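Recap from last week: sequence in, structure out.
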Amino acid sequence: MTSQPDALDRVVRSARRRMRLNRWLFLLPAALVIAGLASLAWLVVGRIQPLSGSDALVIAALVGLGVVGSAALALRPSIPPAWAAWAADRWLDTGDVFATAVEGPQATAVSAAQRHEAEQRAAAFTGFPEGPNVDRQRFAIGGLVVLAAIGLAALPNPQDDVRERLAIEQQLVEAEADRLRDLADQLRETGDPAGETQADRLEQLAEELDSASLEEALEAVEDLRNQLATELAEDLAGLRTALNGLAQELGHDPIAEGDSVRQQLEQLADDLAAGTVTPEEQAELAARLRELAGALQAGAPGVAGALAEAADALTTGDNVRAGEALQAASQAVGDGLRRLADQAASAAADGAAAAAEQALRDALDTLANGGNPLAQGGQGQGQGQGAGQGEGAGQGQGEGQGEGQGEGQGGGQGEGAGQGQGQGQGQGQGAAQGGGGGGTPTGQQGTGSGSGGTPNAGAPGELDLDTVFAPPAITGDGEDLHLGGRDSGLGPDQTIGEQQGRGI
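Predicted structure tokens:
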């Protein structure tokens, strides 16, 4: 288009806007019909099977999409100025005055006169005499279809109860997934490789739950518990008793400098290599190591064998072989601790899965009976346990208690062997007592954890590894037993999550 006066340009722009409006008003009824039919299809299907999403939102979205889509189509393709000028000539009954002026002036007297006339008429332009083109019949059809969809949405839907249940299930499953992630974070904070592995498994389970129904979530949790059951099947109570007994014995009467079992074993090997141990001391050490080996034979045969070899080497004066045997004993202690750490991490993961399984089962039962688990005030959402363990020496008995208050369920386990006795109970408070023999108490609506005391462990220098030692967990870096004082070889207790489950 060539340059033209402002008045003529104003007419062209007004005509272009009117053409776009007419386009939209032509397309909009068809868009409303399509949106209404799509809404009706959604509503009909939604009465046959439950569909996620609000009917009102779906209808509003479809109608809005039709309005916006038809408007977008009305804006494209662009309208050339000549077309707008032709439309203005038709609406204003000006022949082809505007179209001729816009297409380009010709070097003739006739074209000059036409251009002058176009400019005059454009200057007098105040608007088009007729309004936009509206096909009322087509608009009525589109509106009726949309109103029919709105009316159908207002009628009762037999699938509403099903959709409400699905929404409740989704909230419950998401809540359990969040709890699994929380425990996974706690396991990662320990920095233990076994905890990292189990944290990954819990997070993977949480991801499966994010897109699962209640039944599918329960099945996924049961699958993980079945996998963990094989890891918890190995009975490591003897190994735990032996290693903790060794830690307490070396805490009472050390064989070398060091704050942990492995440090003492390795320091003794270094002292032998340096020749700082006298023959008299070697004879005493040989007897001591042989006695330790005999006490550890049942629970930690690998450690016992290495200590026995070290004792034999000391008896014959072979310090080199004795040092190698002590290093092997240190390595065997580390291997045993890693096995215990792996099982402890598996037990923590199993506890989290057990709590999730119980919560999901309770929710499933509540829904089956027509109730709403979200309105139960916390029933069936427990994740706690009351755990207690005890220690005793000789004929002595020891016990520990752990209890807590909260909404949910509690469970605890104690284990051991020897002269100790154990029992478990829980009603409302989720309390558990254990010492010596194993017990698995459960309490209703309670959370808690506890560890037992250490009564009458024996005087320093007195070897009694038949004593029952059942600490809540072997602490440290997962590869050594830190002595932590004469009264206990365990160091500070640490609780990683409070979950109900099988295992240690």
